[in-house]
Amino acid sequence: MRELNVALIGYNFMGKAHSYALDNTDFFFKNGVKPVKKVIVGRTEHLVKQAADNFGWQEYATDWREVVNRGDIDVVDIATPTISHMEIAIAAAQAGKHVFCEKPLAMNAEEAKRMLDAARQAKVVHMLGHNYRRVPAIALAKKLIEDGRLGEIYHFRGVYLQDWLLDPNFPTSWKLDRKIAGSGPHGDLNAHIIDLARYLVGEIDQVVGMDKTFIAQRPKVQVNEQLSGNLTAQGDQSQLQEVTVEDAAAFLAKFAGGALGTFEATRLAGGRKNHERIEINGSKGTLAFNFEAMNELEFWSKEDPVEIQGFRKILVTEDVHPYIGAWWPPGHIIGYENTFVNQFADFFNAINKGTGLTPDFHDGWMNNKVLDAVTRSIASSKWERVDGE
Ligand code: SOE
């Protein structure tokens, strides 16, 4: 059994998801490689100490620079706000560490390219955190498309809808600060459906977009006294602060392969909690997936006899389905946290075997290019080419 020491930078929502996954990759996958939760890093000492205790880390530290240069660290896992991804990832790669980074990879495509160059130069394994690729139903969709079940792809339709900002009393946070997050639901949520679109359909060539901030001011956030990850906070209306990101962002896309795409991300879709839904229509069939029923994949085939044509709902829990062999008997469904287990199992397996994997920093760079092109299009009110800066 090969053990690899991990340094996790960041300790909030993603810190918790990653900690859980690191504990469970070897338990379920038995790939001959085991992550060791060595040190968790954060700037606020009492919070990172609490996270170390809660999530079972051997040590905690407050200075990521010192940690990424430690000789006993093999892997640096970045789960911090977007603004710090580039600096940490480049330092980690230059120190020879394998790097995992949460999405979106960077504030913009230029930063993403620098991260990719550093990782390639250092010859380390690099992976980007788009956990939804590791949902078994999505991996099955990929296989069905590769097997030609959809024929020529005509449409990709993706929405990612949440409602945690519907309440104007929900306070500001780093996710509502453009200087720290880069954008609002565009980089937070559209990045996920762009990743699924690139994975399942291919590269995007041109985009035209729109966005809007409906609630321009929110209660100022008080000193971060508690570990967060909870999306029901209440603020004080007597001290308001500007919101500098959009509440909603949508765009149309033309894929290089000829398909048409529509994308919509919002945090103001009342009643929608984590409603990430995609539908792909081709000349021979349709696939549809909604994360809120993540163990199911809908498939309609034009090749079925006409009298029994209709959507079939595939319960993706059979041994023959991607990832399921590591989990439970048929019908014993898996959940959100398990997508992170699948993701880290693939990451540590790639490190152990010395192979690459996707999504990597190249995918992150391409994703950031699409995000940037939409932003340019919103400013120019015109179609923009993804590669045409
Ligand atoms: C919040 O909008 C969030 O946690 C995103 O940051 C995640 O990437 C998404 O998967 C769930 O929602």
UniProtKB/TrEMBL annotation:
Would the keyword Manganese turn up in this protein's UniProt record?
Answer: no
Which keywords annotate this record?
A: Oxidoreductase
**What protein is this chain from?**
Gfo/Idh/MocA family protein
Q: Where is the Gfo/Idh/MocA-like oxidoreductase N-terminal domain?
A: 4-130
Q: What is the lineage of its organism?
A: Bacteria, Bacillati, Bacillota, Bacilli, Bacillales
Q: Where is the GFO/IDH/MocA-like oxidoreductase domain?
A: 140-287
Do you know which PANTHER family this protein is assigned to? BCDNA.GH03377 (PTHR43818:SF11)
- Cited InterPro entries: Gfo/Idh/MocA-like_OxRdtase_N (IPR000683), Gfo/Idh/MocA_oxidrdct_glycsds (IPR050463), GFO_IDH_MocA-like_dom (IPR055170), NAD(P)-bd_dom_sf (IPR036291)
Against Gene3D superfamilies, the record matches this protein to: Dihydrodipicolinate Reductase, domain 2, NAD(P)-binding Rossmann-like Domain
